[in-house]
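STRUCTURE REQUEST FORM
Protein name: Peroxin-7
Source organism: Eubucco bourcierii
Requested output: structure tokens
Priority: standard
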Amino acid sequence: MGTVGPSGGGVLRLPGLHGYAVEFSPYWPGRVACAASQYYGIAGCGTLAVLEQNEAGVVLLKSFDWNDGLFDVTWSENNEHVLITSSGDGSLQIWDATKTKGPLQVYKEHTQEAYSVDWSQTRGEQLVVSGSWDQTAKLWDPAVGKSLCTFKGHEGVIYSTIWSPHIPGCFASASGDQTLRVWDVKAPGVKLVIPAHQAEILSCDWCKYDENLLVTGAVDCSLKGWDLRNIRQPVFILLGHTYAIRRVKFSPFHATLLASCSYDFTVRFWDFSRPNPLLETVEHHTEFTCGLDLSLHNRGQV
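Status: completed
Returned output:
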């Protein structure tokens, strides 16, 4: 398992662990959280690693162990030291990186693997959404010990739940039922159902510059862009990966730029506004590439 940044670059190996998710800190430039599991998450324990890139390379600042695999991680938006992970035992864990041990709290409601967790980025609300293989998404206030709401409707496992960076209380979910769904926490049912692929959808993300634009990545090796005002057909289709796309992220700096990683071991960079959208293919990894994030602080750091 390693982390790579094109500007400067760096590798850190954590023997015996497979990285599932990485997320840059919104507070500290160069600081990254990584959710990892033993034995590809099938058995064994999980580790939350907090890493930092400095002149010496990538260094491990802190690590916390959990008794099941960790599949996703998100930083708090109101405390620079707090993180939440989601686990194979269906629970969410809240950690404080200044503490020697943890977690601070554990929320156990999902009945199967909690595969996704995301902290809302819109101001004025401190909400967390989780997605699970039990086919539900749950809404949490980290200060409250139980979920505020459960969202049902997916007919397959949920792989990804992502808050809109524009619309308060709005999130998207991607599922093995081949749909992308958009939800509003103030309304009980699903807001929008998009039959986005004819394959399991493993990842989705919102454009940082257009509140109506989302991207999905699926087992069919394609990335598709969706305009929520007209969902009959995708606004773009990006082809090039040779195995399932595990994660996709829009650039925080460019409206038409995005990155994807795949079980084909590659990370690819795209500009969907170009006739030839594939900008670069990075082949640094020698295993499934599962986690991907783009720095909010350092343009070009991945």
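Reviewer notes: The radius of gyration is 18 Å. The chain has one domain: 17-239.
Form closed.
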